[in-house]
């Protein structure tokens, strides 16, 4: 049985649906610190779990015979800059609870998300390699870098089967964005439909690594299904699909909505974005567990607008 902690978040929302389609709804327990929305609760078991409460996590594991945990609860980059102490507490101590439960034999396999936010201003920005200088300058990035070190340590020292992906910016339609610097690329689609215009909080030429959520969820399931001997990296795998700038995504939207207009008013998130790579080398993921992305900017734009139009109408 699978437990998803943070199931109501941006990744958790789609991950829960895909895992339920794959393994059957009663084998996937969704949980979040807040009450689940109606769609979730009706489509399978839901529990209120605070990722910082080890006893709550353990009691759900015992109640359902959980064998695998996807720990998707965290504060993302922009929010974490506003709440450094809580961000460190939530991002790190939730991971320690799950790693320790696995060390004690109560969990067989863990998925834990890292991010391209582990890279900092001194990291090479083009084709950022799997192994390189990593001096993250954000609270979120520091927590993800530390988390990667602990995942590798628990795997090497305690034999914990924990697997991780350094997600690029993720774009999806089924959940509202939650405080990420890359979330301009989600809001732009909503506002293109509702207002016909968007004011970007990143400058027009800010190039960032990005991925459509369908690809991200498929990669997450693929790394968890891969034979353990294929998982050669136990910190976290670079993963990539595309990279684009606010100007380029606006052009892609204009191909569907010709009158769409964009303007640029950079805010504190510009500094965060400027510390990150422009694009990522994910050859290790492609070699070790056959990763291959499917969606490019135009495919994603078509799918996003189609799905949002159906939701908006
Ligand atoms: C954020 N979407 O913006 C997340 C992600 C690489 C970016 O970590 O914080």
Automatic annotation (TrEMBL):
Segments forming domain NAD-dependent epimerase/dehydratase: 2-231
CDD domains: TDH_SDR_e (cd05272)
Pfam families xref list: Epimerase
InterPro entries linked: Epimerase_deHydtase, NAD(P)-bd_dom_sf, NAD(P)_epim/dehydratase
Family membership: Belongs to the NAD(P)-dependent epimerase/dehydratase family.
Designated name of the protein: L-threonine 3-dehydrogenase
Organism: Flavobacterium litorale
Native organism taxonomy: Bacteria, Pseudomonadati, Bacteroidota, Flavobacteriia, Flavobacteriales
